[in-house]
Amino acid sequence: MAQRYVRVQSQSGHLHYGLLQPDRGVLVLDAPPWLEGQQTETLLPPDSYTLLAPCAPSKIVAAGKNYGDHAKEMGGVVPSEPLIFLKPSTAVIATGAEILYPPRSKQVDYEGELAIIIGRRTVSCTPEQAQASIWGYTIANDVTARDLQRLDGQWTRAKGYDTFCPLGPWIVREISVGARLQTFLNDGPAPVQSATVDQMAFSPEVLVSYISQVMTMLPGDVVLTGTPRGVGPLAIGDRVRIEIEGIGTLENPVAPRPLPAAEA
Predict the structure, then answer these.
(1) Reported pTM
(2) 129 and 155, same structural domain?
(3) Pick from 52, 85, 185, 243: CA 20 to 30 A from residue 227's CA?
(4) 264: in domain
């Protein structure tokens, strides 16, 4: 089994990066692993910590319409170069945490994606150089208020709500070129999304290279690589589960977002 790098909060409130052990204990590292964190003698027993999102990025850069079938279902085509946008770091939540459905939206969609973790400061690199900047991979859900996306004509609000970027459950260093990504709703046996990651129009290396020519990527930053066809709406009370071969499962329930105090 591939090593699984996690970020956790201990019962004392301290945050740690670590290596998940087969018994679900966590061997603590003295720094984030992409900053050459080394193993310590501290082992957190199972049930003595809370699993967090596996990194705390300064920014999340996402690619839109990076699978041909998804571009088609959205009424468009794959762009001639990567179409990128930002999600705020405050959108990140861990597996198991609630996706909060904003009252201003009437259609919130799931979008299962492969996520890249950047391992070093990266500026204006080539696709060949980008491979050395990709430290590892995790799973993401690029949750989107689809009706607000259409209304606004740009994507910041629709994709930027708190809780709209579930990440996890952990990071692995490598995945198979043809790893399968699947999304499931509730207890449905059939996936609502199913594709292999090699169906991307722009590979992870091309995405990282392209982004690095626009903005500096920092260690721990996240790149979302796009979603395949089959995106669809979530309802309050749903559970959405995304699986990627070689990584694991990211699962989150959907709950109502509380109204502002003046409106409650």
Answers:
(1) 0.96
(2) yes
(3) 52
(4) no
For residue 246, the Cα-to-chain-centroid distance in whole angstroms is 15
Is 252 in the same domain as 138?
yes
Which pLDDT tens digit goes with each residue over 87-130? 999 999 999 999 999 999 999 999 999 999 999 999 999 999 99
Residue 239, domain CATH: 3.90.850.10
Looking at the structure, do residues 115 and 184 belong to the same domain, yes or no? yes
In a domain, 68, yes or no: yes
* Structural domain harbouring 14: 5-51
Q: Calculate the average pLDDT of the chain.
A: 95
* Both structure tokens of 138: 């995790």
Quote the radius of gyration of the chain (alpha carbons, Å): 18
Buried b (16+ CB within 10 A) or exposed e, 71-110: beeeeeebeeebbbbebbbebbbbbebebbbbeebebbbb
CB atoms inside a 10 Å sphere around CB 9: 15
pLDDT of 78 reads 80
Question: First CA to last CA across the chain, in angstroms?
Answer: 48
Dist CA 105 CA 100 (whole Å): 11
Q: Give the list of residues 6+ apart from residue 115 with CB closer than 8 angstroms, or none.
A: 137, 138, 139, 140, 167, 222, 223, 224, 225
How far is the C-alpha of 158 from the C-alpha of 181, rounded, in Å? 23
Do 251 and 186 touch, CB atoms closer than 8 A? no
Residues 99, 87: Cα–Cα separation, whole Å: 15
